[in-house]
């Protein structure tokens, strides 16, 4: 039973409702138990470190809810995850959807709505009631190290349209959708996991581009918005103030100007843009002062406890008005009554039913989104009657937000399933090799060549000396700028199982790629 309002709670319980904590491992830990039973912490967030199988997650969520209700604050918890699709998919069981940029390349709002419904079906079946998606950032910076394909693209109108449909699809299945990262992380060249980025645009430009998708989502009834640890000198109190701790951003722009009355969630408060500037405990106090409702402290038990203590101390000292806490808690309780109080019990069999729909939707997105950026010499389709060689190199995570690392063998394995005789080769010295027989068909699996010049050099060399050659950009379409004269290039926007499967169909001519690049690539013209 969700309490009616904050007046029914003591201070410790109210403060516990404001926190969302992460933990290590795939079962309840002693530290997490302490946070819930002694600190009255009311919400958790799952990362890939907490996830093994659907049965394990369903069991974990069920035990977590019981602990919160029976030995903790007694209010059903928000159970959150970042299930965006593509490279940010905490539940990586083969049903994860392609990236938002792949949906952006499809340009199909109906497909975005179906995607939201599908992912929410999986999450709800496992007791996850709060998805930290969609990404509403407008990615118009080719050097953005953290957003990229997590965005629908560079056009504010398209980002807003597709983001609204994805969000409403989730909310129609009882899962809270959280648009992020307000005011916008799409035009940065730094990652807030590592440092404090600055977006130096004037107020008019911010309103026209960065704010636009959020405004549209707010008008459509978006449940929640996540703040970003980025400085916006045109609207923040000082040039070095992160938006998360800025009342000018949260109250004046988001609440007053845009009229948002939903849940306002911080990005992770242990990210360096906060931890190494204002500090995590102090940042949590300042975020509440600025107007945030929910504080994500995702990693360290000692920091989580310190942050909770800092908020309680701020109230008891009079620095933080308890009415501010009450307002946030009342908003949290309102959404728990709306989305959480009648949640069904986690169930792996129910997840299996939802997973079938997700897998079908994932293939539909990949089929509509994969983009043939250029095929100047009509190289495609390839034939399964001739050998296929896949050349690539292992990749790292582009950002701490991402879950997976790329391996060329993933592409090779998928292409083998459509009948190719495939061998996999590593990128090496482009002047020395690899070299292939005249009848070979060659694919270069390109992953983040903008950060690795050797990949671009090798791809250009292979294109020059191989008659049947195609570059497959497995994530970043901006990699096209490193090989502007490439003869044949396919962009997949991610390397999820569905995308890899459809790529095979594209290469043999069974599926015609119809996606369009949703971003402008400097120096590349199709």
Automatic annotation (TrEMBL):
Organism: Natrinema ejinorense
GO terms, molecular function: hydrolase activity, hydrolyzing O-glycosyl compounds
Lineage top rank: taxon: Archaea
Name the UniProt record assigns to this protein: Beta-N-acetylhexosaminidase
Region (Disordered): 383-404
GO biological process: carbohydrate metabolic process; peptidoglycan turnover
Keyword annotations of the record: Glycosidase, Hydrolase
InterPro entries from the UniProt entry: GH, Glyco_hydro_3_C_sf, Glyco_hydro_3_N, Glyco_hydro_3_N_sf, NagZ_Beta-hexosaminidase
The keyword Hydrolase is assigned to this record: yes
Keyword Hydrolase: yes
Pfam families given in the database record: Glyco_hydro_3
Record-annotated Glycoside hydrolase family 3 N-terminal domain positions: 12-334
Family membership noted in the UniProt record: Belongs to the glycosyl hydrolase 3 family.
Organism ancestry: Archaea, Methanobacteriati, Methanobacteriota, Stenosarchaea group, Halobacteria
């Amino acid at each position: 039973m969700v309490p009616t309002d904050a007046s029914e709670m003591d201070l410790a319980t109210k403060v516990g409702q404001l926190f969302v904590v992460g933990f290590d491992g795939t079962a309840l830990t002693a530290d997490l138990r302490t946070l819930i039973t002694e600190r009255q912490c009311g919400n958790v967030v799952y990362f890939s470190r907490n996830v093994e199988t659907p049965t394990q997650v369903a069991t974990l969520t069920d035990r977590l809810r019981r602990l919160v209700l029976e030995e903790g604050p007694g209010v059903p918890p928000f159970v959150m995850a970042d299930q965006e699709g593509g490279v940010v998919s905490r539940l990586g069981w083969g049903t994860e959807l392609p990236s938002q940029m792949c949906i952006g390349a499809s340009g199909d709002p109906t497909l975005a709505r179906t995607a939201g419904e599908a992912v929410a079906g999986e999450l709800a079946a496992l007791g996850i009631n709060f998805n930290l998606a969609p990404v509403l950032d407008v990615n118009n910076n080719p050097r953005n190290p953290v957003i990229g394909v997590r965005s629908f693209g560079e056009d504010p109108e398209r980002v807003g349209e597709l983001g609204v449909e994805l969000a409403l699809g989730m909310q129609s299945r009882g899962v809270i959708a959280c648009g992020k990262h307000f005011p916008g992380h799409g035009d940065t060249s730094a990652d807030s996991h590592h440092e404090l980025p600055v977006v130096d645009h004037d107020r008019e430009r911010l309103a026209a581009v960065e704010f636009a998708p959020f405004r549209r989502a707010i008008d459509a009834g978006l449940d929640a918005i996540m703040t970003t640890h980025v400085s916006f000198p045109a609207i923040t109190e000082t040039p070095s103030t992160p938006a998360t701790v800025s009342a000018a951003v949260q109250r004046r722009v988001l609440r007053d100007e845009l009229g948002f009355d939903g849940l306002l969630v911080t990005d992770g408060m242990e990210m360096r843009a906060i931890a190494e500037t204002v500090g995590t405990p102090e940042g949590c106090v300042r975020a509440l002062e600025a107007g945030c409702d929910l504080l994500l402290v995702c990693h360290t038990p000692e920091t989580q406890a310190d942050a909770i203590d800092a908020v309680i101390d701020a109230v008891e000292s009079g620095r933080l008005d308890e009415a501010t806490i009450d307002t946030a808690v009342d908003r949290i309780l309102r959404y728990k009554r709306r989305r959480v109080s009648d949640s069904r019990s986690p169930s792996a069999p129910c997840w299996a039913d939802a997973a079938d729909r997700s897998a079908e939707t994932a293939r539909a997105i990949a089929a509509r989104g994969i983009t043939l950026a250029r095929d100047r010499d009509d190289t495609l389709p390839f034939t399964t009657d001739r050998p296929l060689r896949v050349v690539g190199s292992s990749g790292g995570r582009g950002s701490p937000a991402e879950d997976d690392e790329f391996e060329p063998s993933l592409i090779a394995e998928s292409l083998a399933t459509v009948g190719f005789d495939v061998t996999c080769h590593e990128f090496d010295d482009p002047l020395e090799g690899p070299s292939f027989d005249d009848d070979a068909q060659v694919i270069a699996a390109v992953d983040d060549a903008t950060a690795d010049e050797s990949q671009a050099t090798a791809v250009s060399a292979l294109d020059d000396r191989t008659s049947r050659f195609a570059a497959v950009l497995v994530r970043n379409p901006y990699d096209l700028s490193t090989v502007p004269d490439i003869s044949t290039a396919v962009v997949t926007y991610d390397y999820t199982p569905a995308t890899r499967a459809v790529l095979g169909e594209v290469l043999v001519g069974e599926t015609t790629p119809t996606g369009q690049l949703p971003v402008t690539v400097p120096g590349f013209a199709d």
